[in-house]
Structures are given as C-alpha cells and as structure tokens.
Amino acid sequence: MTQRLEETLTLKGITANWVKISYTKNAVQREGYIWSGLLAFNPIRRGDTKFFYGANRIVTKDTILNKEKVTVQVMQMEIKVYQQGKKFTSLVYPLIYNGESFSFTESKLYDGKGLKDVERVLSIMFSGEACGVPTDTYYFGIRRNEIVPVISTTDIGDADVYYHTEELIFPSDKGGKPDIIAWNMEEGESTEKADKKGNTIYKVKKDKKRYAWDGIKVKEMK
Q: Which of 34, 42, 120, 195 is the least crowded, having the fewest Cβ atoms under 10 Å away?
C-alpha cells in the first residue's frame, strides 16, 4: 500500500513527492517512506527479466531548435534491464523535458519486430492531459547485452483545429519489409468548414519515409 504525501524534495533537478509505503518482510508488517523520484515509472516483467525506466536527472542546456539557440531542460531517462535479480544492461537517453508532456507514461514490450539481431523492442510513451500536448513514443531495441535507440514518433491533436499522426510499420508487421521501418505521417488543418454530418473538413497533408535497419541503427533511405 502506498500514500502520496504533500511534502516534496528536489534532487538532481527533479521535484517529486515523498510516498508512505507499507510492506511485509520476514512475515513482519513494516512502514516507511521513499522519495518517488527513485521509483520506476512502469516496470515490465517477462519471466526472470525485468525492464525498468525512470528519470535519472533533469539538466538545463543550450541547444539549437529551428535554427535558433535556445535554453531547454533535458530529462536523462535511464532504462535498466535485470535478469535473475542482477543488472543485465542499461542506457541513459536524453529527452527534451516539458512538464505538460510528462503527465503520464506507458511502456510496452514486443518481440524483435523482425529487426535483425534484436531480441525485444521496448516502447516508452510520454504524454499530457491537455489538447495540443504531444504524445511522444520512443522505441528501443534489446540486442545481446545492450539497449539501442531505434526510432520515435510524435502524435498531437487540438480539438477540431489540427492533428498530426505518425505510424510505423516494422518488418514483422502487416505490409512490412525485411530490414526496413516504414514511417507514415498524416497532418490535418481545419478549413473551418463542416460536411453534411457536421464533421470538420481538414486540409490534409501526407508524407512517408523509409529507414533501413543494419542491426545496430537506422538510416533514412533516399
């Protein structure tokens, strides 16, 4: 049983609540407190293997966005894989941090999706609760004794005004091709008109890209 407290602690750039917990150890009921910044977001277990991810720290850095120099916050997300209780491999992956886009998260574990030399594919999604807040999904391959970034997608919608969706087709998906990840995008902007059923009419734009997977990384195909 857990109970989130109002008290917070800021550590490594992360502000998080304290949580009161109760647990049983050696048949004895115990209580204690843990800083929620130390907790994994959404762990997954497959047999004797566990997959964890969470915020390692948040740092401020200068970068270039849209050809302009800006200062942003970067969350260093850490992924860890344990087998039989021992750490098997880990990866620290930087994400541009925006509090609204990190209101909730979800992870999924797949087979290798047909990718060469990949045993598992782990997807990690971050999103927000308001319109116009993007949903970002990151895909990682578990291969041999390492975790490698594969590809990411962004979806966003703003109630009958605008939408942007991205779809991936992996080699083992319907219509997939060996060693290729297909990326399909559709974007719609409201024309401020409606059809006979009252549905918004959008001006739609589509795009597609193809990425070759060489067993280690992806590269956009020309």
A: 195
Place of tokens 């602690």: 9
Give per-residue pLDDT as tens, 125-174: 999 877 888 999 999 999 988 999 999 999 999 888 999 999 999 999 99
- Using the CB atoms, write b or e for 150-175: b if 16+ within 10 Å: bbbbebbbeeeeebbebebbbbeeee
Query: Which one-letter amino acid corresponds to residue 200?
Result: T
| Nearest CA-CA partner of 202 in 217, 211, 189, 216 | 189
C-alpha torsion sign, points 3, 9, 39, 216: positive
The pTM of the full predicted model, rounded to 2 decimals, is: 0.89
